[in-house]
Amino acid sequence: MQVEIRRISIRSAFKLAMVLYGLIGFLVGLVLAVAASVEVPPGTEPNILTRLGCGSIAVFPVVYGLVGGLTAAGAVALDKAGACLGGGLWLAFPEGEPES
Length: 100
Hints:
Layout: E1 2-5, H1 10-36, H2 48-52, H3 56-86, E2 89-92
Antiparallel strand pairs: 1-2
């Protein structure tokens, strides 16, 4: 069975990508917060990582979510423009019952 995707909502792609990239940003922020908890040697200037500290758990999901959402929205807009010129995206699904 073949299905043609003719339209993808920019809003739904933005929301989905924002949630997924926000989760990735949370994981990155968590790792960076743990790395920032390492003691800085005396006499050295703290870098941006140690200055953010536990704040990276809040900053990175927002930044990753917004950038990922905007990137997905731009990609969908380009896909819409390309679909007008060359048709939609064709997907082929195997015939028969799905495996469980």
